[in-house]
Amino acid sequence: MGFLKNAWYVAMWAENLKEGEPRDITILDQAIVVFRTAGGGVAALENRCPHRSAPLHLGSVCADGTIECGYHGLRFDGSGSCVLNPHGKGIIPAGARVRPYPVCEKHTLIWVWLGDRPADPAEIPDLSALDNSPQEHVTLRDRLEMDVHYQLVVDNLLDLSHTAYLHKGVLGNPQTTAAAEIAVQQSGNTVTVSRWMPAVPPPGLHDLMFHRDGALVDHWAAMTWHAPSVLVNDAGVTRPGAGQAEGTTLLGFHLLTPVSRRKTIYHFAAVRMNPVPFPEPLRLEIMEQLSRLRRQAFTTEDEPMIEAQQRAIDHVGEENVTPVLLEVDGGAVRYRRVLERLLKDEAACAS
Ligand code: FES
Ligand SMILES: [Fe+2]
User: Fold this and answer.
1) pLDDT value, residue 68
2) Is any ligand 1 atom within 6 A of the Cβ of residue 287?
3) Sign of the torsion formed by the C-alpha atoms of 306, 255, 4 and 342
4) Residue 20 region by backbone torsions, left for phi larger than 0, else alpha for psi between -120 and 50, else beta
5) Across the strands, what pairs with 186?
6) 45-67 pLDDT, tens per residue?
7) Ligand 1 within 6 A of 51 CB?
8) Is the shortest distance between the CB of 48 and ligand 1 below 6 Å?
9) Which of 47, 231, 301, 331 could make a disulfide contact with 31, Cβ separation 3.0–4.6 Å?
10) Can you give the pLDDT at residue 31?
């Protein structure tokens, strides 16, 4: 499937965009430079100077918030207009412009819009737990790069039955996660796949922040996909029969940025909601373990598997692959239908 252009994509965690340090990012094969303008604003421009095509991220941000090309010194403001030519009479040619992209800082992330439709930050999914929660309950804001099409990662996240095998013991168990019945719900352009697993041994990650003794729990996991590439997992544990409100949740944020057809940047973080209060330094130790275990699961288990899957698909050609579908694939089938419709609508508007 093609890429949806009219959508907000994560460029980076906001904490990684420092004043005076332009950053380059490629999204949907478009090279973009992102930088902080005067007063803490953010700008995103095509990362190519109209003079001799030098990438602008190799230049520097000036005190007035403009960006200076590192090759011959043309300066551009956040709207992409050239505001200074330091050579000769200083005449600015009419073509000295760079394409600007709508950009927005929200929920501790920098988002870029690539489509032609007017960009509305209200369309960014609600990830407010990332900014409203006490930061002591937020894990490391992390990222990794994978040599895969982003939809293979969506497939991975919307089918958490894989936790029973690929992340056995830490994030799931074959007797419980794989056997659990799933419910698939669609609401507009979101799809949620949920499981309820009563009286089961807790996955290691959840035991860590709850009883810490392996006692049985009621366990739930509900992964929601927001078109096209934001996923939020509400996964928690509670005492058997006590109800979700009595339990504790790890809200996982999975933000996929399609760089190209075979490269994806995966930003991730998690927030402990309704957290069991642990004294220091145990709380800090738990947070460090959560950050480390999640990174370990994604980099040493998911990433090699999904990259191998991508190679296996490419070996035969994706047009020759027709997946056998299982009950657990209900979510993947549903989100692809939504995405197909959005792509069709976008193509119709463009023509
Ligand atoms: S390439 Fe940018 S000023 Fe020459
Ligand atoms: Fe996984």
Assistant:
1) 98
2) no
3) positive
4) left
5) 191
6) 999 999 999 999 999 999 999 99
7) yes
8) no
9) 47
10) 98
Query: What is the pLDDT, as a whole number, of residue 176?
Result: 73
Joined together, the tokens standing for residue 156 give 């991975």
Cβ atoms 7, 101 nearer than 8 A: no
pLDDT for the residue 161: 86
Residues of the chain where predicted confidence (pLDDT) is lower than 50? none
Nearest atom of ligand 1 to the alpha carbon of 70: 2
Atom nearest to 72 CA in ligand 1: 3
- For residue 171, the model assigns a pLDDT of 76
The distance in angstroms from the start CA to the end CA of the chain is: 18
**Which domains are delineated in the chain?**
8-123 (2.102.10.10), 130-350 (3.90.380.10)
Provide the pLDDT for residue 293.
Answer: 94
User: What atom in ligand 1 is closest to the CA of residue 49?
Assistant: 2
- With a 6 Å cutoff on the Cβ, whether 62 touches ligand 1 is no
Dist. CA 14–CA 105, nearest whole Å: 7
Q: How far is the CA of 26 from the centre of ligand 2 (A)?
A: 25
Output the pLDDT for position 1: 79
State both tokens at 116. Answer: 């032609």
pTM of the model: 0.96
Q: Which residue has the tokens 């960009």?
A: 119
| 61 token code pair | 């941000």
| Beta carbons of 19 and 39 less than 8 angstroms apart | no
Q: Are 289 and 281 in contact (CB under 8 A)?
A: no
Task: Say yes or no: CB of residue 87 within 6 Å of ligand 1.
Answer: no
Specify whether the CB–CB gap between 112 and 102 falls below 8 A: yes
Q: How far does the centroid of ligand 2 lie from the alpha carbon of residue 166, in Å?
A: 7
Residue 1: closest CA among 318, 223, 331? 318
Q: Quote the CA–CA distance of 274 and 121 in Å, as a whole number.
A: 28
Burial class (CB in 10 A: 0-12, 13-18, 19+), 279: exposed
Structure tokens, 253: 């944020």
What the block records as the tokens of 229 is 């590439």
Laid out side by side, the sheet with 60-61 consists of 60-61, 67-68, 75-76, 82-84
